[in-house]
């Protein structure tokens, strides 16, 4: 399994260099070694109280679940509406607030769920990797590494990888990083079997074009979602083929 994951990372790294190289030399020079976003640099981080409470129950009853969510606070805070979003599915919410792609890789390594065989996994990760000094290809490499790790853990599952959504001031935080990172993720995952990249409708999420006007889909921090956003995300997943 580890050898399969390592081979996937090597292939994906080559794909990134090809994609980035076609965008121009100056951009390619900004891209760090994609290996920095792989399991080799996974970072330990303390889990949330909800996750620590839920994981023993997930382990004890793992055979009854057939779906998992992987990600950061955008997914962990989905918990109050999970049953409404997926009424026919027993869902494990394996997300932890504040996680980067590197943190998520570490957490996936430490799951220990031998009896869990999901048919579907939803991944939403990467917003905590956005920043002024981060190249889009580095963010994308991390997201693809997480998806690859999920594929190695649960080869029988279909993976739905959601795009990194808008956030921040005017709901346009680091758009020069976020948008091309999503494009790179889409390009890489297009060749991975059993994976569907779901490009969410940014303007629907932020109630229109980038604006200083508050959007009811977001909390006042312009980062975390209210119920309306989760209803939209559920509709995007259903349109992509996920059974709710």
Automatic annotation (TrEMBL):
Residues of the signal peptide: none
InterPro entries for this protein: SGNH_hydro (IPR013830), SGNH_hydro_sf (IPR036514)
Pfam families recorded: Lipase_GDSL_2 (PF13472)
Residue ranges of every copy of the SGNH hydrolase-type esterase domain listed in the record: 71-232
Coiled coil segments of this chain: none
Domain of life: Bacteria
Gene3D superfamilies: SGNH hydrolase
One of the record's GO molecular function terms: hydrolase activity, acting on ester bonds
Protein name: Lysophospholipase L1-like esterase
Source species taxonomy: Bacteria, Pseudomonadati, Pseudomonadota, Alphaproteobacteria, Hyphomicrobiales
């Amino acid at each position: 399994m580890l050898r399969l994951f390592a081979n996937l990372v090597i292939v994906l790294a080559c794909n990134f260099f090809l994609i980035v190289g076609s965008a121009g030399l100056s951009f390619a020079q900004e891209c760090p070694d994609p290996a920095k976003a792989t399991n080799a640099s996974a970072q330990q981080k303390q889990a949330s109280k909800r996750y620590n409470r839920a994981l023993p129950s997930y382990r004890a009853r793992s055979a009854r679940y057939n779906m998992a969510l992987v990600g950061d606070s955008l997914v962990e805070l989905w918990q109050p509406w999970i049953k409404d979003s997926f009424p026919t599915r027993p869902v494990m919410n394996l997300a932890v607030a504040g996680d980067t792609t590197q943190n998520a890789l570490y957490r996936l390594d430490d799951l220990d769920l031998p009896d869990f065989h999901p048919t579907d996994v939803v991944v939403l990760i990467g917003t905590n990797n956005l920043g002024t000094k981060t190249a889009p290809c580095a963010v994308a490499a991390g997201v693809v590494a997480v998806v690859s790790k999920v594929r190695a853990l649960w080869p029988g599952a279909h993976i739905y990888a959601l795009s990194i959504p808008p956030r921040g001031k005017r709901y346009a935080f680091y758009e020069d990083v976020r948008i091309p990172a999503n494009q790179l993720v889409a390009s890489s995952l297009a060749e991975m079997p059993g994976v569907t990249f779901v490009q969410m409708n940014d303007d629907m999420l932020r109630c229109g074009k980038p604006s200083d006007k508050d959007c009811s889909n977001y909390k006042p921090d312009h980062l975390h979602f209210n119920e309306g956003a989760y209803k939209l995300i559920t509709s995007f997943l259903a349109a992509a083929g996920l059974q709710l």
